[in-house]
């Protein structure tokens, strides 16, 4: 057993939504174990548990402390890990669950957006050597200096899984989902979207940055830097899923791979002498209010005002906008927008923005502006046109 390769699998909240689903996952893992695999499982919180915990926090407090919020949110993954271990015992398989800190996931100090500094999976290895399945709580770690518990940001269990797979020198990291891997569009929006069988890291990273909820953006960056192949599979499905590797051969340059979207983009306006002062004031505001940086998309300075365009999970955006009400220098600027992005393999063809704008115009969707990145065209549209825009642009695939 000691010499067998280690299998690292991550199960998302959707696959663990009920105790019955957890038992079914345990049954699959037991079969894998009996075939001689050494298994490390990373789990997310059950179903919508994390959203419910966040909601409760804002019912108990107007401005929950970020430290206490992390303490609260890490309990979601603890529930799944212990239930899965219990279910595994029922199937006659020895298992043990660990929190992020027990598993050796070391992070920086940033509550709610911590970055992994190092993984020291000493106890994980010991338990694998004892012949146990090791079940780990994703999305969390500990700061080695302060000993404080941290979370990695929403969707962070994928990043735990990649970091653990790299630390254990696994051959690949398997991400088990309710969808059939990475699709040409969110299957909830485009019913006839197709699963992509092979993808390169750069394309997937671009898709996740621009809203593909299928993986935590940072997990793709980490997999790329560690050259850790990813396999995204539908739980219980017979399909092969999506294989994500360093390079993909034989694809036509400029081919549109997928359409993804960010549901909610907000703008903040800051009175300032220049862009640098604008950012300084924004950074001070975040710090004063105990907020972490949102995902910045663009910024510009004109006529005494810095304007920052950003996105993040909805809860964090609401919190940020609430804090602006108490500020003289910072305010919400203009209406909320959505983005729709076309990700291309091997670079964007020069006429693609024009084609995309024409298609949207044909569907009476007005494009506010667009930005180009090396692998994608990203168009900004009214929130109410988001789904129609995704459907319309999917015709380019
Ligand atoms: N391009 C995409 N490909 C596949 N799923 C996507 C894409 N964009 C958004 N999604 C959404 O991402 C979710 C990820 O899968 P799911 O198994 O439900 O989540 P989790 O593993 O986080 O519990 C799905 O609900 C799906 O609708
Ligand atoms: N439970 C956390 C972390 C996570 O990664 O979840 P999931 O794998 O279900 O997206 C969240 O909801 O953000």
From TrEMBL:
Q: Which reaction does it catalyse?
A: L-aspartate + ATP = 4-phospho-L-aspartate + ADP
* GO terms for MF: aspartate kinase activity; ATP binding
- What Enzyme Commission number(s) apply to this enzyme? 2.7.2.4
Q: Which residues bind substrate?
A: 50, 77
Record InterPro entries: AceGlu_kinase-like_sf, AKii-LysC-BS, Asp/Glu/Uridylate_kinase, Asp_kin_monofn, Asp_kinase
Q: What SUPFAM superfamilies does the database record attribute to this sequence? A: Carbamate kinase-like
What keywords would UniProt list here?
Amino-acid biosynthesis, ATP-binding, Kinase, Lysine biosynthesis, Nucleotide-binding, Transferase
Q: Where does ATP bind?
A: 10-13, 188, 213-214
User: Which NCBIfam families does the protein's record reference?
Assistant: asp_kinases
Say which family it is in: Belongs to the aspartokinase family.
Under which name does UniProt file this protein? Aspartokinase
Q: What is the lineage of its organism?
A: Bacteria, Pseudomonadati, Pseudomonadota, Alphaproteobacteria, Hyphomicrobiales
